[in-house]
Amino acid sequence: MARILSKIVNRVRSVFGSKNGLPAEAGPAAQGLPGDENNQHLSHVRQFRNTVIGILAVLLIGTAGYMTLEDWSFMDAFYMTVITLTTIGFGETHPLSTSGRIFTLMIIFCGMGMMGYAVLAGTRFVLEGEINRLITRRRSMKAMQQMRDHFIVCGFGRIGSFICEQLDDLDVEFVVIESDLDKYDKLGQIGYLFCPGDATEESVLESAGVSNARGMVIALDTDAANLSVAVSARDMNADLRIVARAVSPSSRKRLLRVGADHVISQFEICGMGMIMGLLHPHVSSFLETAMDLRQSTTDFGQVQVSSDSSYVGKRLMDTDIRRGLNLIITSIIKKGGKIIFNPGPFTVIEEADILIAMGKRERLNDLERKTGGQSFFGWRETGKV
After folding, report:
1. Who contacts 144 (Cβ-Cβ below 8 Å, separation ≥6)?
2. Helix 2-16 vs helix 98-127: angle between axes, to the nearest 10 degrees?
3. Bridge partners, 195 (sequence order)
4. Which residues contact 94 (CB under 8 A, 6 or more apart)?
5. What does the pLDDT look like over 278-324, one tens digit per residue?
6. CB of 157 within 8 A of CB of 219?
7. Which of 271, 225, 198 is nearest to 41 (CA)?
8. What is the dihedral of CA 175, 179, 185, 187, to 10 degrees?
9. What is the pTM of this model?
10. CB 83 within 8 A of CB 132
11. How far apart are CA 70 and CA 62, in angstroms?
């Protein structure tokens, strides 16, 4: 039997020109997932791919075996292999020798097992919706390539999912980057546009459109991962607004140093909220209500005053911000970074001032149009940033 197998392998090499006798496992194209989708490593796709490769290998070995043992032509050998694998039950193409019959039994046993596994894998692949998921992901990849001025959320954990809920309620375009396979189904069911893969890899960031994005939230589980993403994102888009999560308070300075514009320490924020609730419970309740964008119609926002705005050179009391728009200016940030808290009626508005306002969202949109500058809340009305 060893001599027979040796002959078959040699025959495969001579006929098909393969260095190793069997086709090597293919690269990305054979894995069924092109380009950036290779990072998904879906188990069902691999099973289906391996089944197809196994069937082709049995066809290859069977054809070469009959050509070697029975000295048949390629067509006769291939035909005999196919009808043996499919158990159709036609008669032998030509009378078989003892070695040929033993070889046929081997093909039957291997073929039946392989075909049975193929049916199970194929059924599971279809029933569990893998085809639909792949089609959805490919459509998502095309959609992400066309997005401009969107936001990217790195990590769909407890913090990332909450951020996504807020952005979705405000009709803001965003993309989620997530590497956990177990969360893909949930993302698909909710309908969020997501890019599967590791956010620390530049190819994944590029697939999510970081070069054309306006802002990014980095909410991964470790400071090392958050630092890596911040460095790559800043290098790929110098104008990107980056807000990062600091797992450890000591990581704040490092995140700011590598390119994050703003760093949030969950423990510090939680601690301040608890202190506020303990010492100033009514203020705490007010802030919680005002900051919940899903429930409150009152919002905080900021807008930068342009040079051609009618507000330039005017005192607050001489504008319609309070009387006409019914907005409260809680502070003004000057060019040099100086912050004027609770500005008085005689405070003069200057070009490039950033106004921090509070009021109805519709009125905040009106303020954006009147200042004519860069807005950070006008998207709430249009759904675009």
Report:
1. 175, 193, 195, 207, 208, 209
2. 70
3. 177
4. 70, 72, 76
5. 999 988 888 877 777 666 667 888 899 998 999 999 999 999 999 99
6. yes
7. 198
8. -20
9. 0.59
10. no
11. 12
